[in-house]
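FYI - complex with XIL, inputs then prediction.
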Amino acid sequence: MGGASTVAALAGGTFGLNLVRAAPANAAAHRNRRIPFGACVNVGPLQKDAEYRAAFVAYCQQLVPEGGMYWYDLRPNRDQFNFGIADTILTFADANEMPMRGHTLVWYGAMPEWTKQISSAAEAERELTLHIERVVSRYRGKIRTWHVVNEPIDDPVAGKPVGLRPSVWLQNLGSKHIDLAFRLAHQVDPSAELLLNEFGVESAGADAEAKRQALLALVRDLLARGAPLHGVGLQGHLPGKVEIDRDRLSQLVSEFRSLGLSVHVTEFDVADDELPASPAVRDAIVAARAYDLLEAVFAATRPAAVFTWGITDRYTWIPMWHKRADGLINRPLPLDQNYRPKPLWSVIDYFCGQTG
Ligand code: XIL
């Protein structure tokens, strides 16, 4: 009887077999089979808070910029490209050997004022083409994954078919701007993984259901038209009070997988403004939402990555829209404002560690 099995037999006899774990044959390979976890990085605290930097190094395998790649950051004026913030975050990512993804090439939000002057299809196509060529080529070989089109589906209105979200691109080019963006990005960097990123498709309720159907229809149309779309990002910005619709979310993920697409959780956080005051109760609900979301996704596939929209409650966009009336700080993220891991972190760590 070999040494290892003797120990196993003894431990099994004494403590019960469930305590016996064989050491993985190759610990590094084992670790590498983890699903990469990442979070968005904000350049402000990145430059002034050493604990913030350390948290990414300790917890993340991938990063995405919170800002710096929005149109208003990259192109404050029509003729000026400003890569400073994006480059600063990329330098941090490179120094720590973490891939950084690109967020985002086409979004209705975070647009500079001057884009309101765009008033024809030709002008819109010219600006979009220039933008994608400049930005994607600058980061070719460095940014391997792009959130090409962000939040294209409009908010559902009861009784009406769900449409595309108004934007300068939709207004001037119609829905073909989505195809165009994917084609351009693919032309410029044929090896980059190109994602469509959307929110509001995880929860229970009629609006989320309408949005799930609209998203699936859009994805099918894009693929039918031959757009180089490689994956779907489920943002996971969740309303705290609403349950996840696990069955419908699982089915949606299965549909994407059967279309050959990768599936990513890209921006998880929970709006906790209407949840009870008790931090422990709130943390438990936030963790439960993540558990339900990840369980539903994992029931259909292993996601390519899991991201939260920030790493610490110290710096989060949630209070911009979801400040609590009682003045307590929001608690949407894996680490609290003092960088202590919360139950949400345990849930993420559990799922990302599933090596199956
Ligand atoms: C938010 C940022 O966190 C804010 O700092 C910024 O002012 C606005 O955008 N969906 C997205 C993200 O894809 O880009 C948004 O980020 C949050 C919603």
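The pocket of XIL is lined by residues 66-67, 110, 150, 235, 237, 267, 317 (CB under 6 Å). The chain has one domain: 3-352.
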